[in-house]
Amino acid sequence: MDLTKKMTKLAHDAHEASFSMASLAGGKKTKILKGMAKALLKNKSSILKANDKDIKNGRSKGLSSALLDRLALNDKRIELMGSSIIDVAKLKDPVGVVLKHWRRPNGLKIAKVSVPLGVILVIYEARPNVTAECVSLSIKSGNSIILKGGSEAYNSNRAIVSVFKDVLRKMKIPQAAVSFVTSTERKSVDELLVLNQYINVVIPRGGEGLIRKIVEKSKIPVIKHYKGICHVYVDEYADEAVAERIVVNAKLQRPGVCNACETLLVHEKIARSFLASCLKSLQDKGCEIRGCDKTRAIVDSCWNLRPIHKATEQDFATEYLDAILSVRIVRSLEEAVAHIKKYGSAHTDAIVTKKKKKADMFVKYVDSSSVMVNASTRFSDGNQYGLGAEIGISTDKLHARGPMGLEGLTSYKYVVVGNGQIRV
Amino acid sequence: MDLTKKMTKLAHDAHEASFSMASLAGGKKTKILKGMAKALLKNKSSILKANDKDIKNGRSKGLSSALLDRLALNDKRIELMGSSIIDVAKLKDPVGVVLKHWRRPNGLKIAKVSVPLGVILVIYEARPNVTAECVSLSIKSGNSIILKGGSEAYNSNRAIVSVFKDVLRKMKIPQAAVSFVTSTERKSVDELLVLNQYINVVIPRGGEGLIRKIVEKSKIPVIKHYKGICHVYVDEYADEAVAERIVVNAKLQRPGVCNACETLLVHEKIARSFLASCLKSLQDKGCEIRGCDKTRAIVDSCWNLRPIHKATEQDFATEYLDAILSVRIVRSLEEAVAHIKKYGSAHTDAIVTKKKKKADMFVKYVDSSSVMVNASTRFSDGNQYGLGAEIGISTDKLHARGPMGLEGLTSYKYVVVGNGQIRV
Predict the structure, then answer these.
(1) Which one, of B202, B137, B195, lies nearest residue B13 by Cα?
(2) Per the CB < 8 Å rule, is B359 touching A423?
(3) Mind giving me the DSSP string for B218-261?
(4) What's the CATH number for A230-384?
(5) Which of A132, B75, B138, B269 could form a disulfide with B145, with the two C-beta atoms 3.0–4.6 Å apart?
(6) Which of A:278-337 have CB within 8 Å of B?
(7) pLDDT digits (tens, 9 = 90+) for A110-159
(8) Torsion sign across C-alpha atoms A193, A195, A196, A198
(9) Could you say which of B104, B110, B419 has the minimum Cβ distance to residue A374?
(10) Where do the domains of chain B lie?
């Protein structure tokens, strides 16, 4: 069978299976997920063996040690996978929920009832635990899922999916509800991206380059964020100690992720004392600082700070994903908001202030998918928000926005019940 | 200025204006809308004069009398436009609504708060009242709107928009919040459809051909339905009198619209007696019937029914938009659902039955944006659902589905309030 036919069949079968998935009772879905968690543990050794293959291939391909670490599985990581599936199993069934209901003057009863989206295509890179996360979310939300993982994790992903499919088979669920693209050819993705008659949404998880390519080619709606240029604005009314703790955490707790802070904006009235202390902490922890002219002047005047480079336009528009922070001093909250509007990516932006009025203004004017007050940008995450898990983060305005869990994987239908009403 | 530059400026300005629109207080928006309704009445004569031009142009172009009727304005129609704007003005402000809120164990307070989408591009055909409807919905929902109406209604639309812009100017609202594409060139739409940095959603209102062209070219998400192949399924447990009333209404009350019924499915156990009476009513009212073999046999055996043509595969897949109905006798509810799955357009489908269990099955298995029980498909409409007005109907599963009013023109952001929390 050629690739086009193969991918069309895969998507068609996933679409067919989605009808069974949509009508599964909540209890049955919980059972499937518990079965999958159990099966993962039971089949640890075969999964680890497959993972070994990927690690060996990765080494010989010269993958970086960071990438190899993300790729590697061990007993503990498989147990974590299992427990995260159990976490999803325990969430409330998001399907069949009456989101709203009302009655019309003519007696018609109208309800908005949640339904699954149908078929989800997830395209992702090296981490094999994403496989378990996405499968559990799609089953819980009554969807079919098609997984296209990175070629580096091919054997691991295939082993995990085969364990899951075994559970589906035993529970008499169509196996096409969880599909795995076995072709490692990049062209298989291109084939899938035009099948909008079968696939309802594409969720790419990966770097900006990958996502742009997918958006370019897709005939199916893509839920995505390109990058996370997150800001912390330290207002003139900030508690400086709180602000420092938040900035250090937002930048350095895990610099390589999308909700890490890339730019610090500081009100000029608080800049001197705040930066003297905060930049010291950051530099001590190995963070490189790049600053506007005013920031550089402050740094130059502090004997215990190392000199810094100038932050260019390019810096403010860059997602470093590294221990680098650009810093800019602003004259007002409005200037901070304007900076965020110009350079931000609508992902997550925070204000640190003690004044409620300032916080409210920031929340109102910053048009990002998550806006934080007196908290680290690092909280912008499905688990941290209590959504149970996360299938992606969206900076779009249509459908899901921000961290996206089960609810983002559902749509709704209107159910109208009458007793013979006709329109006059 | 060339067309590309002109359209880019238009979209850019609408985008800039959207920030002011997003932060307008509810009371201000009500005031603007009331001002617009009043201004319409005050400027009746200039609008009617512009409309006259369109009507004359339409006549000389040889537009059908149906189209000319849709295009024509008169005192009463302008008054209706005004009162429908007042209806929208009275609706609750959909922006800034706390959709959900909860507290995390670490004390973070998380809220999902509704926000406008930003900039809406509406592309529509001849009816000038659509202009008023769309403008009022977009203002109420805090969005900017770009209108591209049909060339037939060019003068009428321009006159209406100019009245609206005057109100914006007097109320010190950026006039780019309501933009009107003055170029009648089709190419202007193509230019707009790639400006996804400025425009958040495209809503086409018109025929399937128009919509397909837009989807093909758009880089911006399109909310749409291609067609409405709506079904009424008369179950074996239907009240036959109720069923007949619903079928006649769903087919004939206004055959040219998307929520009119195109196919009648009848359970074989009830078919003979039901069709004998129902088809008589339909034929008496001038409806052409096309039927499956079993239907034709019944028709042939009834002395008072005129002979009918066979309904082909093509018939079942056609949106007649006319007084034509295809009829098929099915052996079970499951067969009816399968037919709807195969030929339906996920718009609106209805069951007529006295058995709750059958109704529940139908509601569960029919994957359409509106599912009706014992009511006419003609109710599938924003006004009929009590949404105040309708900017479109969506058969997609992402973002809005079914009749789409104010809520569909909003997204949300997460607002997270802490007291210094950092991630550990």
Answers:
(1) B195
(2) no
(3) -SS-B---S---EEEEE-TT--HHHHHHHHHHHHHSSTTSTTSE
(4) 3.40.309.10
(5) B138
(6) none
(7) 999 999 999 999 999 878 889 999 999 999 999 999 999 988 999 999 99
(8) negative
(9) B419
(10) 3-224+400-417, 230-381
Q: Which amino acid is at B17?
A: A
Nearest CA to B262 among B316, B224, B336? B316
B367 Cβ under 8 Å from any chain A Cβ:
yes
Contact A416 B371 (CB under 8 A): yes
Interface of A with B in 328-357 (CB under 8 A): 341
Q: Does B76 touch chain A (CB under 8 A)?
A: no
**CA of B60 to nearest chain A CA: how many angstroms apart?**
35
In this structure, the number of other CB atoms found within 10 A of the CB of residue A396 comes to 22
A108 touches chain B (CB under 8 A): yes
Question: Does residue A183 have a pLDDT over 90?
Answer: no
Q: Is A3-224+400-417 a domain of CATH 3.40.605.10?
A: yes
**What is the complex's ipTM, to 2 decimals?**
0.90
- The CATH number fitting domain B230-381, selected from 3.40.630.30, 3.40.50.2300, 3.30.870.10, 3.40.309.10: 3.40.309.10
Amino acid letter, residue A408: G
Mutation site for A-interface testing, chosen from B257, B406, B421 by largest number of A Cβ within 10 Å: B421
Whether residue A290 contacts residue A309, with contact meaning beta carbons closer than 8 Å, is answered with: yes
Interchain CB distance below 8 Å, B422 and A110:
no
CB spacing of A423 vs B253 below 8 angstroms: yes
Residue range A27-38, pLDDT digits in tens: 999 999 999 999
> Which amino acid is it at A13?
D
